[in-house]
Amino acid sequence: MFAKPDITSVVAGVCIVALGLLLLLDGTGTADLRFGVLAPACCAAVGAILLASGMGRPR
Amino acid sequence: MTTASAGSAGELRRDRDAGWIGGVAAGVARRFGVDVTLVRLAFVVAAAAGGAGFAAYALGWLLIPAGDSRPSRVRIRTGRAAVEVALGTGLLLVAVLLTLRELGLWFSDAIVWPLFLIAAGGALIWRQSMGEPADTVGRERSASAAAVPGAVRAEAGPSVAAPGRAELAVAEGRRAAVAISRTGIGIALVIAAGVVFLQATGALGAARDVLLALIAAVVVLAVIFAPWIVRLLRSLTEERAERIRSQERAELAAHLHDSVLQTLAMVQRRAGEPTEVAALARRQERELRAWLSGRPAPGQSARLAGALEIAAAEVEERHGVPVEVVVVGDRELDTRHEAVVAAAREAMTNAAKFGGGSPVDVYAESADSRTQVFVRDRGPGFDTGSIPPDRRGVRESIVGRMKRYGGRARVTSAPGSGTEVEIVLEEEQ
After folding, report:
1. What are phi and psi of B228, to 5 degrees?
2. What global pTM score does this model have?
3. Minimal CB count within 10 Å: which of B195, B251, B316, B399?
4. Which of B164, B139, B132, B183 lies closest to B428, judged by CA?
5. Which residues of B touch A40 (CB under 8 A)?
């Protein structure tokens, strides 16, 4: 039996991994990480973490 | 707390009854426990940016099944959870807008960003103007009551411990601070939207000149009228403080009348029965100590029906007069309903003392929006206009108490025809 995962931690982990991949792609020259790409990615990551945290709290 | 009408809260269903078009926004808000205004604004702003909102709404209308019309109660998130959900939704929306802008699916910076800021600020101001859900207010009051254990417990009858004015003042202060900060942030966002729009359209220079002239005029007028404004504000503050002090005094007097003064009167009447007098004194001492320390009184009930029955049993035991209680409907006791119980208890005590030994009938009815209690006796009755000014039972403990808590009480009596006390408390709007 596994304990129920903390959804906020899972979402935060996925977001950080995705951001790390973006930076890796930028570092290897596969993708061009400009402000126009990085800004929405960061907003989406923080927004998803906040949303998951808010939804996870008891009403 | 709000009432919605489509399926259970766990399923995503369109809420046609609460919706404006197809019920998609209302259904999403209901499913995730967020304010429906927030979801609607997200759709509107996304619609302004390349029409993504239209597409998302149409997809939702097509794919999400409509809910049934079975009513159910859904609790909206409040406090920190609501702030996090609102901020998270806003940031995700910003991310979508930035992506659409980057992809070229964009209307205009001068339109979309001001619209986004106006929507966010408008949502905050609108939410504040709609007021807090009733259960939020109740929870805040309970939380502040628990947080101030040593505060004075005013207005509680001997069998009912309630948060007093100090706790209520703390809760009111907290709610006022939240209201001011929410409205302030909303206004700041709307002003920022105006500045962004003027900047984007190149009209900021002209607007700045007008604004400077306006500020200069306001400063001049403020210097001229400052003494009068300060005096007015000071007088309003003093008047408010005096009103609060006067209410505190009235509530303290009502509590002492209902408990200590009545016990002293009983002690005088039963001076020849030392065992009973000692028991009365012990009980009163316990109640008074519990009231002073803010602890719940012994034998307290958390529900209206239970509290009325406890009060009736206590009056019956003290005065030896049968008290019949019938309660239709029940509810949890909040501060206002504790005042109803305290007023009803005083009415029962009066009926037992002055009703000539006739049985006392108590009928209480509690629905969602209204609580009514009737206390009747078939005693000799009295002329309601002839109550001496120093008698506080009817004037302060019943009528005054209900008035202070936003309810009303009416005493109907005439010599020879018994007495009826009607206590009514409507739900706060």
Report:
1. -70, -40
2. 0.48
3. B195
4. B132
5. 94-96, 98-99, 102
